[in-house]
Structures are given as structure tokens and as C-alpha cells.
Sequence to fold (558 residues):
Amino acid sequence: MEIILAKSAGFCFGVKRAVNMAFNAAEGAEHICSLGPLIHSPQLVERLEGKGIRVVNDVKSMTDETVIIRSHGITREEEDALTLKELTIVDATCPFVKKAQQYAALLSREGYAVVIVGEQEHPEVQGIISYATSGETWVVANPEEALQIPAHKKIGLVAQTTQSFDNFSEIVQALLANNKELRIFNTICDATSVRQNEARSIAGRVDLMLVIGGLNSANTTRLARICSEIQPQTHHIETADEIDLNWVKDVATVGVTAGASTPEWIIRDVVERLQGAGK
Amino acid sequence: MEIILAKSAGFCFGVKRAVNMAFNAAEGAEHICSLGPLIHSPQLVERLEGKGIRVVNDVKSMTDETVIIRSHGITREEEDALTLKELTIVDATCPFVKKAQQYAALLSREGYAVVIVGEQEHPEVQGIISYATSGETWVVANPEEALQIPAHKKIGLVAQTTQSFDNFSEIVQALLANNKELRIFNTICDATSVRQNEARSIAGRVDLMLVIGGLNSANTTRLARICSEIQPQTHHIETADEIDLNWVKDVATVGVTAGASTPEWIIRDVVERLQGAGK
Fold:
């Protein structure tokens, strides 16, 4: 059995950075927590807990300690609350997300109605939008929603960093027709499209496709959906244990990729289990 | 024979305004000229000449007189030259073109590389681009040309007012992929698309289509091309005299439209000639 592992599988730049910062911070700190789970990987969160990093979901219940801000970023209100509590902050917000927050703030300050392209409930989007402190804001997930926005003189646009470029571009087209001025910051991070394109290419030439990552991870779930459209024999798994060996019994080639929040050791476990089954 | 005359045939807002301003100015002035032909209609230019309005093609050869600036606008350099000569200026620049000039100036001032969507040689485009006085500028006619522009941090976009929205939108998409910030002023005037859409609709349900306007008028030529794609029996004419009565011999319905620079009396002449032939 041949195994084709995607070069782009696993941690993106921002997640890798956040995880390293968390492990480093855990070395010196006595009381340490992350505001929400650091990444959407239950397995990694467990390892972090082993190093003493608790998951705390709201600032109120924090006491004298070090707090790690995860790569998705936090809202302005959470930031203010942390500052008021005089906690030690390890800011692991992805620098690309930080840019999107700053652009939202700039657009709002300069009188633009601010539109965020993304998923309303996603913590990254909640963070970005909180920085648009004056004037109107909208979150839109698709061109149909964008067309519901009434005409404006000045519309400013930023994107959740993991959005697809095609969807972003269609939303721009929808807004272009109705609004006099459109100021767009393309804050989409390449990592997502590179990963998705490579997954598409691999899914098209294998007999079975495995997509590894948290079931609660939006980007992994999307990755699995993209693969299953090309290769119906696609499985979204969290760990190597979930591989049913019947899947690979009569199979010549298996493709493997993983979401942005999937640790390397889990990918390695999957590849090793497949190699074992192929013998 | 049924004649269907487009509601949107003839002068747009800016041209109507410029022609009125010119005739009014001719009343009081002894020496009066326009910088270039006022509009792309040889017949109207002839009538203006009858009122004493000469066509002068460069500022240098102007003497003590009143100068009409046509609806396309002029370049900043021409404006400076007119001001230096202390001539009386009747500024008939279309207010929508003026906006595009102001946006180009604003973008340039705020550090954007300025892209104009339009025809490089068109006087309106030459005027608009002259207001982008600092930094880089480009004129692009289509998405392929837009893709040749190297990646920038800040790109600003304005359009020649008569551009098609679809082309503008495709150019926006092309620039969106390569540039971090895109600030777009949608300066396209509805008049053009309204006229083109009505022409398409009429051309699809008549046996013959007549498009009236100067052979040197870009918008009339485009209008004729659009109609001929739908109705091969389309003729681009300047005046009623050019109608070959053989065209309408066995014809039940004739559609008539006219470019933005076609005077009403020429349209009326055409309709009357058709009515005469149909009897």
C-alpha cells in the first residue's frame, strides 16, 4: 500500500507559534491557563493540561496567574477584562489574525461600515468584529447575505483568515454593485487554500482519503468535505485508533492530510498504523 | 411598420448639462470656444459653431475668450494652463467624471497606486489619471492587463464612467488576489448600462435595429456592437439621410436607440423618416 502524506498537513504558522509559546510559558509559570482551549485538538489540550495549563472559559473565574491568548485571538472586552485583573498575558494571537483586528479597528475609526466575511459564531470573527468599535458592523458568510446589507457610501471589508478566496471574491462582487466606496483588506491566509488545494489533488488520485483533526475543528471539517466531494471513500478521524482496518484491506493508495490544529505526533501515528496494516 | 424607440436613447445627464451650458454661454460671450469638440456628434458641433463656439484643440492657441470645458473633463495640466492664461472658464465637466477625478487625487494623496479601468486614449481617462499626481498609475482595459500589475500593499481603483460593470468587477477580482489592500470607488454611471440593457431588450424583439450616433463616439460604437450580436440586421448611422429605404421594405418592427452624445433632433429625424417609409 502506498501512502501519500500531504506536505501541508497539520499545524499552520499561527498554531505552531501558539503551541510553542504555550509550552514555553508553562515551564516557568506556577498558575497558568488558556482562555478557551488553545486549539481545536482535544489530544493537544490534554497534553497541555499535563504541563499544568488549565482551560478557563471566562476571565471572571481567573485568579492570580498567567493567561495564554490562543491563536484565534480574543475580543476587545476580554482584553480589557484581562488588563483590569492585572494578569500576566502571553499573547499567542496569530499575527495574521491580529492584522485583521487592526484593519477592522482602522476601518471603523475612519467611518466605514465594517463587514467581516466569516462564520458569525467563530471566536476569531467575534474577536475581529469587537475591534470595530464605532458605526455599523456585519458578519456575512456568503454573497446572498452580503446582498442583504443596505447601500452605503463607505463599506470596509476584512475576512476571517481561513475563508475561501472564491467566497470572499463573490462577496466583494455583491458589495461592489451597491456601494460607492469599497475598501478591502484581503486578510485570507494562504495556508488554508494551499492545504485545501493539495488535499484536492491527492484525493483525486488515491483509493482512500484520511483527514485527521478535531471533530470540533471547522477547518478540518471543511477539508474532509472537500475531499469527500472528490473521493467518496474519505474518513474524518481524530486519531489512529479510529482507523477501521477493513477500510484499507483492498486498497493500493491512501492519501493523508490534517487540519491546521492537528499535532504532528497524531499524523505520525496514523501513517505508522497504515504502514503496519499494509505489511 | 412598428417603431420601438428606446426611452434611454440620446443625451445622458452630463451631456445634456454640458450642451445647455454651452448654448447659454454662447448667448453672452463675444469670443467663445470649446477645448476639443464638446461632444462626439459632428452635427451638434456644427450647430454650436453656428452660435459662435469654435473648437480649439490646445490651450496655447487660445486668446482672450471664454472656454467651455466639455463633459469628459480635461487634464490637470490643461486646467493649469487655462488658469495661467486668465481665460473665463465654463466648466461643463460631468459631475460624475469630476468625482472620479477627485477620487484619483485622494487615492494618490493617501499613498495608493492608482488604477483606472478604461480606455487609455480616451480624454476622460487622460483627465482622471492626471489627478493622480504622486506615485504609480496604470490604465487597464481588461482583467488580463490588471494581472500584469505587480503586487502592491495599497491599490486604489476608479473607473471611466462609461465602463461596463462586469468588466470592472472582473478587474476587481483579478486585483483582489494579488494585493493586500484594495480601495475601490465605483464611479461607473448607470446611464450606460441602462441604455445598453434597454438596447439588448429591444434588439431581441425587432426585425431591424438602428443605432444613431457619431462614428467617432466610443459609447455609440459599443452600443451598435451589442445590438448586432443579438440582431445581425443592425446599422450604426449618424443621421436620417443614411437610412437605406431597402432596409425597411419588408420589415414589421424597427428598434431605435442612440448614444449618449446624440442630439434629440437627430433621433426625431430618424423616427420621422421611418414613419414616412412605413406609410
User: Anything to note?
Assistant: The mean pLDDT of chain B is 93. The longest strand of chain B covers residues 154-159. Residues 13-28 of chain B form the longest helix (16 residues).
